[in-house]
Amino acid sequence: MSDIAAELTPREITRRLDEYIVGQQKAKRAVAVALRNRWRRRQLGTELAADVYPKNILMMGPTGVGKTEIARRLATLARAPFLKVEATKYSEVGYHGRDVESMVRDLVDAAVQLVRTEKIKEVAGKATAAAEERIFQALADELGLAQYQDHTHGLPGVMEGGLWRPRPRTQDAPPPAAADLAERDQARARLRDDIAQRRIESRIVEVEVRDQKTPTLSVMGPQGNETMGIDTQALQELWGRSPGNKTKVRKLTVAEAREILQDEEADKLLDQDAIVQEALDRAQNDGIVFVDEIDKIVSSGGSDGPDVSREGVQRDLLSVVEGCSVYTRYGHVRSDHMLFLAAGAFHFHKPSELIPELQGRFPVRVALQSLTEADFVRILTEPKNALCRQYVALFQTENVSLTFTPDGVQKLAAIAFKANRTTQDIGARRLMTILEKCLEELSFDASERRGQKIVVDGKLVEDRLGDAGDDTDLIPYRL
User: Fold this and answer.
1) Which CATH number fits domain 3-121+275-367: 1.10.760.10, 3.30.950.10, 1.10.645.10, 3.40.50.300?
2) Where along the chain do its domains lie?
3) Which residue from 135, 138, 162, 142 is spatially nearest to 259, judged by alpha carbons?
4) What is the mean pLDDT of residues 335-339?
5) Is the C or the N end of the chain the one with fewer CB within 10 Å?
């Protein structure tokens, strides 16, 4: 696990989650302990650590109260591979849907991308320098500023694409004067500085880049090519259909060329095998899988129709959560020590209606509470990504000063809370509907109101929403 995990005590994890999620302290404490236990297991001996399994968590509560956000922020804090899936997208073998084991493959892919991104940041400086050098050489050749040198045998020539191109000297072509060489060197220095300072980002340059086109190859199995775990790219290379190291010349702006060439140069500096090995280790020991809508695969008790498939998904999910070996394009991966977080509203079903074996694999259960009017006030103003802050920043791009007064925020929260209580409870997502409706006209006219100040107070909210905010006949149409 990342070294940063050593600093993440349960109290510190809870504090950081508080920066984005209001309330739900029980859920925060549960996931904080689960994350800390990942680090604690890493400190144990190999033999004992193999027997310490994660305590998977089942979160129950209505939509919009923070279940998904808690899981996502937790993975971000730990810098761990994270995957969010919907339980309803899977099906048992023989029914329409994805194979349950594909979630492990997707998690491994996410882990490889995560590690690769981290490694690219480590070599970013070298990759940028190499990319700018390739752009410089391309522009220098185009402008006739290629390096002029004397060959060891006295033949003049230029450096083109990193290779010496000697040019025989004729009697009619004397060597260039020192002044010409000095002027050429100055022009090259100016060009190099322009590239480094990003002054010619829109200039078109012809560069030789890797050919990214890959022919399509479909390998279908009983549940699609994902079930077979076949690396189609390897097959393409084996059959000679992969572009491999083929290159082509493209006309790009300097900015576009820099981005593409940086990726190419970074790939040259990275050890791909080491990336895969680290990614597999982090996926197996630190990976977090968030299974949402798990209550939707609870059987209603009938023996016909889709209920058969629902219970089948539970059985298939059980094998993955218990721990099994899944074949991926990078080899076999075990799911024994992956942390599974499951969540569901459980409006029509109870957790006890899950098959007993699956219930036992989620020993920690947390009930998240419905949000109150006071919670809505805090959600609008306190988190780092608070909705009010987002709208203030959006209006600022139009040079419009938008401010929210306490009574305005209170009124917005009251309308949202009443709408949730009167109709379907969709949690904090209701605030987006209320705010967007309140600021719709102002957002439309913001481009024509540059330099103005807009104050969102209780009166403005009342004027914009009118009686509709409290009209039970109109609330159902404002989802």
Assistant:
1) 3.40.50.300
2) 3-121+275-367, 126-207, 214-244, 373-478
3) 135
4) 90
5) C
